[in-house]
Amino acid sequence: MSSSFEKYQKKRLISSYFSVVLSTTLVLFLLGILGLLVLNTKKVADFYKEKVPMTIFFKDNAKDVEIKQLQKTLALAAYTKSANFVSKEEAAVQLTEDIGEDFVAYLGENPLYNSLDVYLNSQFVSVEELETIVKELKAKNFVNSVEYNKSLVSKLNANIKRIGLGILIACIFFAFVAALLINSSIRLSVYAKRFTIKTMQMVGATKGFIRKPFIWKSVKMGIIAAVLALIGMAVVLYYANESLPQLKLIKDKVLIGSVFAGILVIGVLITLVSSFFATQRFLNLRTDQLYY
Description:
Layout: H1 2-49, E1 53-58, H2 64-76, E2 80-86, H3 88-99, H4 103-107, E3 115-120, H5 127-138, E4 143-148, H6 150-191, H7 194-202, H8 207-243, H9 253-283
Antiparallel strand pairs: 1-3, 1-4, 2-3
């Protein structure tokens, strides 16, 4: 009878340990993914900002030397990522492909202009910065006009701010939920051994002596859970980088390493603190309170 009860208790304890590791792994994994999202939000935002072109159209009487000189000047400017010349003939071919009709043959002439497609560094992709640059370029007498999608730039910046704030709030919320869930799981595992704790206390064991194995056990479970969460994060990060190689998600090794290290530290700290307070709670209970 005693042997059956011990087996039952052992199975119950193993089950509680498994639930602690599983729940801790899941919350740490989710927290880690959110952390990576927060830290990569700027990188993703910069990628899309730098895809918005500003097009400079030149007058028909603009000299080649003037256009080439401007292109070189723009290439050296702090706000320029790249500047590509598009001749009126190339523009006509592209537009013909887009509309599916040879408009040059229909009109008898090419009404398009030679142009420069300028892609800016992300920090300069805002309506205020672009308007300053446009004003400067329009002052040149061989420039016909400077165009960019103003509404797209405004919406892009507004959405980036909104998404970044949303992810940050979600990260803080899930960090709080993670602490609560891990704490609850640890308390349940300690609760399963509350009678052992009280027995040890009754035979004269000090609180520190009793707490030590419980804390160490919880910390080991936290490390195991963190390692499993990190493996999951690494798999997700690998496939995300394979799907979107242009974002170079794994290029910044220091950034990724800091997130991974942070998840490991969080896993250890939360389990350590939770197990300390959980054992302390049962150490302070009277014997008759253990049954409630």
